[in-house]
Design goal:
With about 280 residues, the protein is an alpha/beta fold. It has 11 helices and 7 strands. A 7-stranded mixed beta sheet has the order 3-2-1-4-5-7-6. α5 links the parallel β2 and β3. α6 crosses α8. Bound molecules: S-adenosylmethionine (SAM). The site of S-adenosylmethionine (SAM) has 21 residues, from α1. The site of S-adenosylmethionine has 21 residues, from α1.
């Protein structure tokens, strides 16, 4: 196992990478409006150099590579080699020549100080074991006066994409409460929490905004359940020891619960996320 995979969270992401690779097109489509909002908050324009931390199977890196154009450059990083291989494969198939890939964690970025115009992370910072250390590193490698922008989930109860599934699953599989600062998708779903850490890390002009959009993709409720139950290690773990009958019952209940969010047979969940952004002091 790679030296990088030193904690449980990374081992979970290692196990999840196969499914993020399998579903990368759906993931790209469903979060495309979020990526556009991130690009806006990060003030990304043509010709810039951009660092993406926790780039997963390639987003937002590949969309940003198009936004910065041939004179710009993106460094897509993630601790999981399979995620990066998937991202690189997609970049090649799209003919993108201005993006590179590097396996590393957020808290030890192998780049010189003051290198990038912008540093971003989409849905990554919640999983850093030490978010303050990760944000300090992101600021270190950003040029003075450069931007940093981070996307995190807002509360689960504001996101039917999340709560409709967890409500059904929790009726069948008991779960213990999550520690407030444990790595988890909703760790920063609280007004001001991530912004406060970004300020402590040294950013100025720190701003927080809520992004409302539709998580949309051309998939059916049945495909949605396959997708959701595969891309989440938390769900895979809960389902792992259930009988075939129990799994089928949960699948049917979830498909029933989400049906109103599939107008015309295609998925469209109203969603709410948070973008925290700031500037590196000059
Ligand atoms: C929810 S995925 C987000 C992937 C991608 N940015 C996206 O929005 O589709 C979270 C990513 O965080 C990465 N990750 C987990 N722990 C990390 C750490 N300590 N440093 C950097 N990335 C990490 C995982 O490997 C995974 O690819």
């Amino acid at each position: 196992m790679s030296q990088v995979l030193v904690n449980d969270t990374l081992q979970e992401w290692q196990a999840t990478a196969t499914y993020w690779t399998k579903h990368h097109n759906t993931i790209r489509t469903m979060f495309a409006p979020l990526t556009r909002a991130l690009i806006k908050q990060a003030h990304i324009v043509q010709g810039q150099s951009v660092l993406d931390v926790a780039g997963g199977a390639g987003e937002p890196s590949l969309t940003i590579a198009q936004a910065v154009g041939p004179l710009g450059f993106v460094m897509c990083t993630d601790p999981i080699a399979e995620m990066l291989a998937s991202a690189e494969h997609e970049a090649l198939s799209r003919g993108l020549e201005n993006v590179r890939f590097w396996q590393c964690t957020a808290d030890t970025l192998p780049f010189a100080s003051d290198l990038f115009d912008v540093a971003v992370s989409r849905l990554g910072v919640m999983f850093f074991p030490d978010p303050l250390a990760g944000l300090r590193e992101m600021l270190r490698v950003t040029k003075q006066g450069g931007r940093i922008a981070l996307v995190v989930w807002d509360r689960s109860d504001l996101n039917p994409y999340s709560y409709l599934v967890t409500q059904v699953v929790s009726r069948h599989v008991p779960s213990s409460p999550i520690e407030p600062d444990a790595p988890d998708a909703f760790r920063f779903a609280e007004e001001g929490k991530l912004a406060a850490i970004l300020k402590v890390a040294g950013a100025i002009d720190v701003n927080e905004c809520v992004v409302k959009f539709d998580i949309a993709a051309p998939i059916s409720p049945e495909e949605f359940w396959d997708f959701r139950s595969e891309i989440s290690e938390v769900l895979r773990e809960k389902l792992r020891n259930l009988s075939g009958d129990e799994k089928e019952r949960i699948a049917n209940e979830v498909q029933h619960a989400v049906r109103e969010f599939f107008p015309g047979g295609h998925r469209r969940f109203p969603a709410q996320m948070i973008i925290v952004s700031g500037t590196k002091r000059s």
